[in-house]
């Protein structure tokens, strides 16, 4: 599996958080669609099927990025599982 770049993963996580907040505050068709779209992107990036699984996988990936930085792996390198 090809792993997303850390910067891209963090950007999608930020969009997911924003869409979740907006939909929770004022649920509309627009906020629901926005949340569905970003949830789909996050699931595709993490190779999962639900938002809960995607968030757990994203946390694990972020931990791997941190560990690789500590061991000298450059941020721009692609991690392959």
Automatic annotation (TrEMBL):
InterPro entries: DUF5133. It comes from Streptomyces shaanxiensis. This is DUF5133 domain-containing protein. The lineage of its organism: Bacteria, Bacillati, Actinomycetota, Actinomycetes, Kitasatosporales. It comes from the Bacteria.
